[in-house]
Amino acid sequence: QSSRRGRGGKTVTEITGFQTTPENLAQLTKQLKNQCGAGGTVKDQAIEIQGDCAQKILQILLGLGYKAKVSGGK
Q1: At 11, which CATH number?
Q2: Do residues 52 and 11 make contact, with C-beta atoms less than 8 angstroms apart?
Q3: Does 46 map to a domain?
Q4: CB contact set of 42 (below 8 Å; sequence gap of 6+)
Q5: Range 42-70 burial, b when 16+ CB lie within 10 A, else e
Q6: How far is it, in rounded angstroms, from Cα 18 to Cα 27?
Q7: Owning domain of residue 32
Q8: For a surface tag, which of 1, 8, 29, 49 has the fewest beta carbons within 10 Å of its beta carbon?
Q9: Tell me: the pLDDT tens digits for 17-49?
């Protein structure tokens, strides 16, 4: 999901719905940041990646065996 709310007008891609440990979430965040070439963070069991990378992240997550879909955004 892409969002601009409360981020100074900048777009971030938010990935939610993970049921995993904080360590696994941090590792996945690092992998997504590297493959998207963007910054990001983990907030409240959600991953935020800077920029509109929803389609790229979708392909990465599907390749890793996650059930994923794009919601909201453009």
Answers
A1: 3.30.780.10
A2: yes
A3: yes
A4: 22, 25, 26, 29, 48
A5: beeeebbbbbbbbebbbebbeeeeeebee
A6: 13
A7: 2-63
A8: 8
A9: 988 899 999 999 999 999 999 999 999 889 999
